[in-house]
Write a structure and sequence with these properties.
The chain is of the alpha/beta class and 355 residues long. The protein is 41% helix and 17% strand. The radius of gyration is 20 Å and the shape is globular. Pyridoxal-5'-phosphate binds at residues 10, 61-63, 86, 132, 134, 136, 161, 163-164, 184.
Length: 355
């Protein structure tokens, strides 16, 4: 089977030296070796998250920690800003956990603003606000400034899904007043899937102590008990953690965060210009994502055959998500993708579609 370059927004290509770390000799998860690896990983994440909050990671995809946020933090009512498929998923998670939940619907392609939630938070009996920082289905990045103030004024916890943005764009968790941050390995971190990470503020942690019916697997207090010993409650995906620790070292000490952010921004700007030249942007300009771009299929191109032709040439194409299939397509420019690779891919699309 020919390996393909993944231009989908996760999972992404994993660099060879990062991938190889998964083949390190296995260790027991209660061993000294594992504890050292755990501690090092927490420290690396602390620098990327820019946060002093409690940091947990464990054996789940990111959706698991989205569910954890709901189970630990919502007692009275959840308010969800819904502007695409992943923010809608968080709302569904709240409802399926039998929580009272309300969604503020924002048109797809746009983003919510603090003033959109203010009146609702003041009027309702809410205790948590859920915002998807980078809505991967529409390639919309929501500016997060101002949300935490509205939350604080209403004694509401601020929960953020940064699954497809953390480590690609600056996201200072503490400065932004984020109480629960959820992210995962297989997007901007450029690590194999199967491991998710979360950061939990004191306020959210204390709230969790009083919340009922949290279950066991995702209880922050169970995580904390083990985190104190640089460990996890259940057996973690040690190969992915070894990759993540190595990758964090690369990101922080080899490439540098600022360079990484700049590379993402430049690839995003290039992709947006390309889309404007040949198609139309799906996202409004003020909230277009720096890690993935969504193009409206204004030429009515046959995206299924485009995908097949790109596949033959060794590329995995990303059609529109869910209801946008055929009507839009996405180009991921995240993790360790380089500008020259992106240009080659976009050139190929031009050739195939004769643009
Ligand atoms: C990928 C993604 C998820 C889901 O992540 P899994 O690891 O598949 O559970 C959630 N939210 C956003 C914004 C995503 O991009």
């Amino acid at each position: 089977m020919m390996a393909k370059s993944l231009f989908i927004p996760g999972p992404v290509d994993v660099l060879d030296d990062v991938a190889r770390k998964a083949a390190d000799p296995m260790v027991g998860h209660r061993s000294k070796e594992y504890c050292a690896l755990h501690e090092k990983t927490v420290e690396g994440l602390r620098n990327v998250f820019m946060s002093e909050n409690r940091i947990y990671f464990g054996p789940t995809s990111s959706t698991g920690f989205m569910e954890a946020a709901v189970r630990n933090c919502v007692e009275t009512k959840a308010l969800h800003v819904v502007n695409g498929a992943f923010s809608n998923r968080w709302h569904q998670i709240s409802k399926s956990n039998d929580k009272a939940a309300h969604a503020i619907e924002i048109p797809w392609g746009s983003a919510g603003r603090p003033e959109d939630v203010k009146d609702e938070l003041e009027a309702g009996d809410y205790d948590c606000l859920f915002v998807t920082h980078n809505e991967t289905s529409t390639a919309v990045m929501t500016p997060l400034e101002g949300f935490s103030e509205v939350c604080r004024d209403n004694d509401v916890l601020f929960c953020v899904d940064a699954v497809s943005s953390m480590a690609g764009v600056p996201l200072p968790v503490d400065d932004l007043g984020i109480d629960v941050l959820v992210t995962g390995t297989q997007k901007c971190f450029g690590v194999a899937p199967g491991l998710a990470m979360t950061a939990v503020s004191d306020k959210a942690f204390q709230k969790s102590a009083k919340t009922e019916n949290k279950g066991y697997y995702f209880d922050y207090h169970v995580f904390e008990k083990y985190a104190k010993k640089n460990n996890t409650p259940s057996t973690p995906p040690i190969p992915q953690i070894a990759q993540l620790a190595y990758q964090l070292d690369r990101i922080l000490n080899e490439e540098g965060l600022e360079n990484r952010y700049r590379r993402h921004r430049e690839m995003a700007e290039h992709t947006r210009q390309w889309v404007r030249r040949h198609f139309e942007m799906y996202a409004e300009d003020w909230c277009a994502s720096d890690t993935v771009t969504c193009a409206k299929n204004t030429r009515d191109a046959d995206l299924t055959s485009l995908s097949a032709e790109l596949g033959e040439k060794g590329y995995l194409f990303s059609n529109g998500y869910g209801k946008l299939k055929g009507q839009a397509f996405r180009v991921a420019h995240m993790a360790d993708r380089q500008m020259n690779e992106l240009k080659t891919y976009l050139d190929l699309i031009e050739q195939i579609l004769r643009l």
